[in-house]
Amino acid sequence: MSGPLSAPYVQAQTAAPATSETQVVPPPVFKEPQTPIARAIQAQVSANLPEGLALYYGERAFAPVWFNENGLTEDAHLTIAAMAAANDHALNPNNYDPLGFIKRSETSQSEQEWAQFDLDLSVQFLRYATHLSSGRVQPNKVNKALNVFPDRPDPKMLFENAEQAVDFGAFLESLAPQTDNYARLKRRLAQYREKAAAGGFTQVPDGEVLKPGMSDPRLEVLRTRLMEEDIVVAGDHTGDVYDGALVEAVKLFQEYHGLETDGVIGKATIAQLNIPIQEKLIQMELNMERRRWMPDDPGQFYVFVNLADQNLKVVRDGKTIHTARVVVGKPYHATPVFSDRLEYVEINPYWNVPYSIATKEYLPKLKQNPTALSNKSIRIFQEGNEVAPTQVAWNSYSGGNFPFRLRQDPGEDNALGRIKFMFPNQFNIYIHDTPSKSLFTRAERAFSHGCIRVSDPFALADVLLVDSDGTPGKWEAIRDSGERTVVKTKVEIDVHLTYLTAWMNKDGSTHFRKDIYDRDKVLLEALRRAMTENL
Known about the structure:
Helices cover 38% and strands 14% of the residues. The protein contains 18 helices and 19 strands. The chain is globular and about 90 Å long. Mean pLDDT is 93; it is low at 1-20.
């Protein structure tokens, strides 16, 4: 092997002498370049070139990838065109310099210029493919609450697959997420960009709260505004009374924006109506990025929780078979994003009070009244033994020296309700019932310490445990018996906790949600920084 790649690989080989327990990986054997242009490419390969890409060039004897004796290949033209159209995927074409490559293809003359052109186009194609398939930024580096680690393409495998592709245009299209969710949002983004170019959305003037049955001079403006967002039923309204089709259109608008669907136009609804279309475009673009982080295949049977939407759905064999409202973490206790697998369901569970809640919320109450937790059926343990709360000098303890474990018995008042769904994880997050049912009626439901409370949890149990026992009323009967019971799942059920603030449903409705955790803001700053630094 010869050329500028030799030294690093020789060093890697000699750094670890062979022993009975180590195996030396032989350095790659590159073919000698056979043409002047191949020798020019070999000479210009630098240590900055991604290793996998260097391996690919070396194994093809440094032959050019993107041109031949007749000029640029068809694959090169298609690649440059795809990079030029990157904005369709909410990526910045300028990051890949497609116009620069077109100009260089017309002006390059020397072997050295063409060699550098080939290497540069390979690097930019790798960058484009990485951004398109797995995201512009790495989620966990942007926000530690995003425990998502998308697979980034292996350079050598990417180029080998590209070389073997029968239809290179189809190969380029396959780099993007192959999901209906991504395709729908991409299509809707294009439509909203057209709306923005045509002038955007009509502003609805402020005024008194508008309720069904009232008259108001803003009705025609309101009707126009709703039709601009493709809520076509608004077009059926006539007259000067706020009723009928226009009320139904407003309710749809409220549903699509996570508001109370009461048809009453107050401050919150007016505020949503008057959000500039440019802000909605940005929100869509951010969620295109989030979709790139997600796997194409979420599993055959899975639970999908959108934290921003505060809703849960269960999908089996591609069909949504159950939906439910959920309560998620407060902004201060924001629920993290991650995926795991449901392992068991516990009926009539104990609640082992988290240390932070025990010391920050309950310890002050115990200092004031040692029996303060008795009416909550919370018992106190130390080293596995139960202790009487009246026998503890609570004022001697603080968050730094609290040796007790607090546990609430099963029952109606248990903080976890009567059932919990466990997918053991490092964050101690799970889905559970709650005695606080009234919170599910609210439009915004971020009230927990991080875990996810679900409405009608036994309906969820019926769906998730049908393979364990499909007998109607089985799990409610166990609940009513008061017996603490653990039921293991019989099939694989994935759990995905996600954070999406914009999406398009199969029915064509476009949904936007409030950024309850300010994650849109953080992601937008990260994307802008990445674009500036051309990462």
